[in-house]
Amino acid sequence: MFKFIFRRINRRYFFALLLLILLIPLFQIYPSISLATENHFLDSPYTRWMSIDPFNTMSAIFFILLPLIAALPAGSLLRKDIDSGFIYQSLIKSNVRQVLRSYLSISFGLGFIVVLIPLAVNFGLYFFLFPNIVPDNLLNSNLLIIHQNTLFVTLYYSHPFLHAALSILWSAFWGGLFSLFVTASSLWIKNTFIALMSGLVLQIILLIISSFLPTLKTGSLAPFEFTRETALTTNIKWLPILVILFALLCYSAYFIFRGVKKRVFW
Fold first, then answer.
1. Distance (Å, whole) CA 227 – CA 183
2. What's the confidence (pLDDT) of residue 121?
3. 64 near 203, Cβ under 8 Å?
4. Model-level pTM?
5. For the chain, where are the alpha helices, taking DSSP H only?
6. What is the pLDDT of residue 7?
7. Which of 182, 188, 183, 226 has the alpha carbon at shortest distance from 200?
8. Contact present, 104 and 187 (Cβ < 8 Å)
């Protein structure tokens, strides 16, 4: 059933979208090319790549747009197949649980991949520019990577490659989660464009809310901050992260199942 539904994905559209998204990490690398020739072994891929660079606009753009980027490949696929009636062909071949599981797996999986690949490419390309040396908390103090704004900061200074790899997977996981969020929203929002933008709107709302909170004490609620390897201007704490994670999972599960029940089995 998964393969049957997966054929619905327009591969040309997906690869064209991925190439377009890859422009963001490539533009982020460009200013570092000239710096690489003047590097005095103070910088490394672990101090310059997109998820940790606090000074590059393209880095901020990528993580602001992460919910929209993740939703574009398959966030509205379930809604489109319900509207076109394609889902009923799937239900002839299998039961509703398997069909729904396949749609959710595709939505999450493509949201995961479309975030993972640009970050992995950006990180990998930096090894062609800078030496593979472990960051130093004194020499690289300008980045201000401390436990208040970085998860597992000890791991960053002891095993930076592992820390970066986990950061990429963490960001990609949130990409998949936002894709599911948009899938749920699309079942209740008639306009496809607005539905696709719902994750980005949520991101902006959480950023605004966080700006009014004493985030140095409470921690940021905005995925823009904690999906990066290190946050820009705020503290990162597990409680608000888990609250947002739980809220997105509950929202997605409730509105997907209610939406399918309403639109397919009314």
1. 20
2. 96
3. yes
4. 0.92
5. 2-6, 11-37, 45-48, 57-71, 77-84, 86-93, 96-125, 153-158, 160-186, 192-211, 215-218, 223-226, 238-264
6. 77
7. 182
8. no
* Residue 130 CB partners (closer than 8 Å, separation 6+): 32, 36, 39, 43, 44, 45, 48
**49-63, 70-84, 155-169, 208-222: which has the highest mean pLDDT?**
155-169
Phi, psi of 56 (to 5 degrees): -100, 130
Q: pLDDT tens-digit profile of 31-88?
A: 888 776 666 557 889 988 999 987 788 999 999 999 999 999 999 888 888 888 888 8
HEC profile of 29-64: HHHHHHHHHCCCCCCCHHHHCCCCCCCCHHHHHHHH
Q: Which two tokens stand for residue 58?
A: 């393209």
- Interatomic CA distance for residues 172 and 8, integer angstroms: 22
The tokens describing 25, both together, are 């990490």
Residue 149: φ, ψ to 5°: -120, 5
DSSP 229: S
Write down the residue that tokens 């975030």 correspond to. Answer: 115
